[in-house]
């Protein structure tokens, strides 16, 4: 390769020493290894992770895998980006350095020390939480040091009293890590711990409330025992607290994300879905449907379909003026899964209510269903659409009014299949 410059398609040249020798791309986080060579952090970490123990350039053994940030080169790259921004080059951000394993161990020891002052333990928890938020790598490092075993006893150390700041900070850090099944089972099988989490759903701090909902979702989803899941879902206050979290303004998106995850996990328990309906789940799900992100829309629609499988749920959804029009509108608009769940919910509603049938036809469901059965969506979505078309046959517009409509001809083919 040339010794100084390399041409780009943009018509601009990147200095050769700004490129990573492994990826040949502009370095974003240059680090130097023990041989004195500099690489982009992501590239050299991937090189080592695949089992390589030599320097890619010199082929000399890497006797020390410590990566030293090359701050001088990174600043030169940033200055070069700024100087060439007229060519569409964006300045690379200053990377946050990965957590030091020694620091992480020290902070965890401080957190677990019951003899340490509360303020000192709080400070250590907050530093660990900040590190965990910075990157997946930091979370992986913290998680490898038995962080769950340290935090669980602290979270539940004051079951019979008001939660302390130490409990709440431990909870905030704990929900950033997945619990193993035995840990989920241990929490789920202790009624006092579940009641404690249900009380936290009504805490004065929204962060505490959302973190409590997050841990409830983790425990319910991670517990295989249907009996234990039912025990958790039987607590009225849990549904009430989670529904209340979902009522928060869109300015707090994490409340929506965690709230719908928790509600969906609880509604997977068939025996207690009526409690969700009683707590107001149908109304809040329809009212907030437009506020969810794509993956959360899918989860919300899956929850709606689950609740439509019980009479009380069907009645509640049918009683909301926006339910049917929204479900019809969503078909083919969000994703294949969202389409499948929306069609399933409409099928349940229209099977139970002639009013819902009329609303669906008025909202244009026939055209949506005809498009659906001809699309590349899931087999289950097509099956639901075909069943719904059959169900709505008596509600179709008069054939004479459609004349030689290709859509109507297609409809006959679909229904008779």
From TrEMBL:
Ranges of residues in domain U-box: 13-87
Entry EC number(s): 2.3.2.27
Gene Ontology biological process: defense response; protein ubiquitination
Pfam families: ARM_PUB, U-box
Signal found in the keyword field: no
Origin superkingdom: Eukaryota
Ribosomal protein listed as a keyword: no
Keywords: Transferase, Ubl conjugation pathway
Class of enzymatic activity (EC top level): transferase
GO molecular function: ubiquitin protein ligase activity
Functional pathway: Protein modification; protein ubiquitination
Functional note: Functions as an E3 ubiquitin ligase.
Protein name as it appears in the record: U-box domain-containing protein
Species: Acacia crassicarpa
């Amino acid at each position: 390769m040339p010794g100084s410059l390399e041409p780009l398609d943009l018509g601009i040249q990147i200095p050769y020493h700004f490129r990573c020798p492994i990826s040949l791309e502009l370095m974003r986080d240059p680090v130097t290894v023990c041989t004195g060579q500099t690489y982009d952090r992501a590239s050299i970490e991937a090189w080592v992770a695949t089992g390589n123990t030599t320097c890619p350039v010199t082929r000399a053994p890497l006797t020390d895998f410590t990566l030293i940030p090359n701050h001088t080169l990174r600043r030169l790259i940033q200055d070069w980006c700024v100087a060439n921004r007229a060519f569409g080059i964006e300045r690379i951000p200053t990377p946050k350095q990965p957590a030091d394993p020694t620091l992480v161990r020290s902070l965890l020891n401080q957190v677990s020390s019951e003899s340490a002052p509360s303020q000192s333990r709080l400070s250590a928890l907050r530093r660990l939480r900040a590190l965990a938020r910075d990157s997946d790598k930091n979370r992986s490092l913290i998680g490898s040091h038995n962080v769950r075993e340290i935090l669980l006893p602290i979270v539940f150390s004051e079951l019979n009293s008001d939660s302390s700041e130490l409990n709440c900070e431990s909870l905030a850090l704990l929900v950033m890590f997945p619990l193993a099944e035995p840990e989920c089972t241990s929490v789920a099988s202790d009624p006092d711990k579940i009641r404690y989490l249900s009380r936290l759903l009504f805490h004065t701090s929204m962060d505490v409330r959302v973190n409590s909902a997050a841990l409830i979702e983790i425990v319910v989803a991670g517990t295989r025992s249907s009996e234990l899941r039912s025990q958790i879902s039987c607590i009225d206050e849990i549904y009430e607290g989670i529904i209340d979290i979902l009522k928060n303004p869109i300015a707090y998106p994490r409340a929506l994300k965690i709230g719908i995850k928790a509600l969906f996990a609880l509604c997977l328990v068939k025996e207690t879905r009526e409690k969700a309906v009683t707590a107001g789940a149908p109304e809040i799900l329809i009212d907030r449907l437009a506020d969810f992100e794509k993956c959360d829309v899918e989860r919300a629609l899956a929850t709606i379909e689950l609740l439509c499988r019980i009479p009380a749920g069907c009645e509640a959804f049918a009683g909301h003026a926006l339910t049917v029009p929204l479900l019809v509108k969503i078909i083919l608009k969000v994703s294949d899964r969202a389409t499948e769940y929306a069609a399933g919910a409409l099928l349940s509603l229209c099977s139970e209510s002639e009013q819902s049938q009329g609303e669906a036809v008025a909202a244009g469901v026939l055209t949506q269903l005809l498009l659906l059965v001809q699309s590349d969506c899931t087999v289950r979505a097509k099956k639901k659409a075909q069943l719904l078309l059959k169900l709505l046959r008596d509600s179709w517009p008069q054939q004479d009014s459609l004349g030689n409509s290709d859509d109507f001809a297609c409809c006959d083919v679909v229904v008779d299949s």
